[in-house]
Amino acid sequence: MPQIIIDGRSVECRPGIPVLQAAIEAGLAVPHYCYHPGLSIVASCRLCLMEMKMPHPKTQESVWAPKLFPSCQTPVRDGLEVRFNSPAVRQNQKHVMEYYLLNHPLDCPVCDKAGECYLQDYAERHGSASSRMIEEKTKNPKKDIGPHTLLYQDRCVLCTRCVRFCDEVAGDAELAVVNRGGRGEIDVFPGRPLDNALQGNVVDLCPVGALLDKDFLFKQRAWLLRSTPSVSPADSRGQTIWIDHNDGRVWRIRPRYNEKVNEWWISDEARFGWKHVHREDRLRQPRVRQGGQWRRQTWETLPALLRTQLQEAARTDDGARVAAVLSPMLACEEAWLLATFVRGLAPRATLAIGPVPLVGQDQSFPKGFIIKAEKCPNRRGIEAILRQLGGATATFDELCRKAVEGEFAAAYVYGGYPESWVSPAAAEALSRVGFLVVHDLFESLLTQAAAAVIPAASWVEREGCFMNCDGLVQPFERALAPLDGVKAEGQLFSELAGRPGLYRAAKVREAMAETMPEFRDVFTPQPLPEHAH
Amino acid sequence: MPFEPVLMRHVNVPNSTSIDVYKRAGGYEGACKALKMTPDELVELVKKANLRGRGGAGFPAGMKWSFLPKERTVTYLCVNADESEPPTFCNRITIETDPHMLLEGILIAGYATRTTVAYIYMRGEFTEQFHILQRAVDEAYAAGYFGKNILGSGYDLECYIHRGAGAYVCGEETGLIESLEGKRGWPRIKPPFPAVEGAFRKPTVVNNVETLACLPHILTRGLEWWLSIGTENSKGPKMYCVSGPVNRPGCYEAPLGISVRELIYGDDFARGLRGGKKVKAVFPGGLSMGVIRGDLFPRNPAGTVDPKADYDELDCRLDFDDVRNYDLLGLGTAALVVIDEDTDIRDVLVNVARFYSHESCGQCTQCREGTAWMYKIAQRIRAGAGRLYDLDLLQEVTQNMGMMPGLSICGLPDGAAWPIRTLVYKFRREFEAHIARQAPDAVMTYARRINPAAYELPVLHGRAVIDEGGTFQTPVDLMSKRVTLGPAREVVAAAD
Fold first, then answer.
1. pLDDT, tens digit, for every residue of A48-95?
2. Helix A505-513 crosses helix A332-345 at what angle (to 10 degrees)?
3. CA B319 centroid distance within chain
4. How far apart are CA A128 and CA A106, in angstroms?
5. Shortest CB distance from B407 goes to which of A46, A100, A133?
6. Do B362 and A73 touch (CB under 8 A)?
7. Which residues contact B286 (CB under 8 A, 6 or more apart)?
8. What interface predicted TM-score (ipTM) does this complex get?
9. Which of B184, B368, B393 lies at the smallest CB-CB distance from A182?
10. How many CB atoms lie within 10 A of CB A246?
């Protein structure tokens, strides 16, 4: 571990990283635009310049060199001494900030990035309140560069992060700098819009408000949003995300740095994979069929009713005529609670994992980013639980086949998929079950065939953990309260399982860890400091 | 001993671009000699000759070659024929009249550096020159000076011409390499330097056309001849370009160290200004190196002009050292732009600023924004809405754009800042006089046309005020504190 001295302070840092990265990790707010740890280094914003001690060419004595060095381009080495607090460095930061603001439109009041904008922050810290340019500002056009993205060229600082991202990480190189010097602009090539599976990241990468998400445009101010750490259910990779929400609504999803999985990026599926949360047609009211008529049910009476009905069905064959479908959209804790509840009533009950949606093939990108074909977050977690509990298990198709033969007197089917997931044939098969409980987000063929329908909560409204395709267990937190009239799964299953009090995923996890050590240590990536990415 | 031109010996010689004419004049003898030496001996010879790069920075070529790593399999030689410094056209003359001299130089340098492939990076605007040089390359291949086993020495060298797309910044060696690789011509961050990792990530030497053109002559005429030309630290002949309103503009070969006055007034050179005009200013090294004054001005800025005591800067000798005594960055391309007494210095400023704002590559912030800003300021001064403060502002911008080393990736901002800095510094009184003659509310009118609320900003307090004693007030102090101002009219009145 090399030791370097920054501003007179000794800092231990990882070998091979740039001084800028070491300084950021040591908690120093060194301004920078073009540097990003996940991209190649261009050293063009010239804002992170520092002073460095070097051996004097004649005396070999270590002295401050009479020039400035880009800290993003200087790798750390043991004994290196640098400073950011000298007048020359400050002077440079001041001048560069002045240059950045010369032609900037200063339209923060209508800019989506305001509040989380590097330019704004640095202007406040290092800039001047008034411009010395009295000439006309250079005006650049607004451009529609892709199905999801707008480019407000006026605000661009030409850090080329987006260009490098498309080139190096996404691999499609759709963006480029056109024109030269002060007339330089970011643009796409004619007829080739910015439309790759990772393109949304350019919006997060943009240190200013130049690249904007059409989906988020003019929706919310950044400072009103609260961010909740979560894990995306979009695929089985378990991309860690921030859910930005306000007023009981999700407004956008941003990547959460995770060195083990998605690093700084997320796929567009993960980014826009929250639309189903606010669909108007979500189920909101538990209901039970009585004498061919739907009757509304309250959450207070529901657990008792379910327990009675399932117990009834479990009376014969030691409970072999009971089945439960655990969807891979469930968190591990919820699945464990439901499974242990069902097994508690009916020890020989059949447990099945819900259908695992597969779309195409795994997609890999140049720097190692992978989008999995498996579009659910927790197949491995459910499998681990089923393996641990043992007993009768089946695949969803097997369960349907048995259901056709009338083998089941009662079944608890949990869906929770963002899209309709059950085929007419499966719905037909499951309708043969004597008492069918369907716990799902939306109306479907299955809910029409059910004896009891329970509205589900989306992952945004729940907490728990997912085990990703590599067996990594990552917790996610609840961002929103469940929809009016909906009870979160964890709470309902706790009540069913007879665990009194408020549901806490961590507590359930502790209980699980007694038999399943993989749930003892869940992985939570360390949050990055401000402007560290 | 009268100076005998070597680099320009084939100017006005019929059919001089053909290999026959070149060989009849002793062509390719130097290369034959070189191929009998070892590469290390050759590097040593060039080091002894103190051949300094003719591209502008004057870096010793032999030293540059010795930076190449010892262990290497592939080496590239890039020939910088991007000649894009504004008034420079000496490489063009070389290519047009004596392309084989360049090719022989490439062969010698290639052998010395154990180069495998040489690329001639040619300015995009050179069209006729490209065809001439391509013909010459074909001839050289046919005669066995390029290709496999050259002249039986066992040395292989391929030579290609690559044409640029017309960007000033591609004359910078790493910008050139990027462009050669087919990328956008953005200079690279250093280290690694091209000698270690250059074109296609292999060790690369970048040399100017004229530097290479000198090599055959060093070999054929010998070190002693070479060292007898020039001044102490600047050896050899140099091609000087003279442009502007002179009687005989053109390219002239002379030993390094000739004075600007000689070049402008000498009978062998430009023969004075047209119509007997006086020189006002000269950019002696291409634009980037800065300006010298050609009119008389007092040694002591406070004094009055006295023709006997006062001096001009035309005695500046054009070698690698003396230019520094005249506030110039260096010799540059040794291409003179002469500006006569009738020229408005503000026009010169606009022209210079426009060039760099057009040619800045746009990577580094200071250069991208600074050059564009300076151009805007220059245009405003030209439009008769200058402030005294603008002169200080220009000085400040040039200072923080590139004068502190390390501020930017390449040297372009230095080159952009220096001519403007020296112009404003050396011709400050003239700028002040222009500004003093402006209409009283010129700045205000200008600023309010762009921003109707502009009058509230203290920065507008820049109208020229020169009192009887010749001193003036700049609004720099006003910048630091925010002043409450009245409506526009009163501001002007207050400034008066």
1. 999 999 999 899 999 999 899 999 999 999 999 999 999 999 989 999
2. 60
3. 14
4. 13
5. A46
6. no
7. B56, B85, B86, B87, B88, B332, B333, B334, B335
8. 0.90
9. B368
10. 15
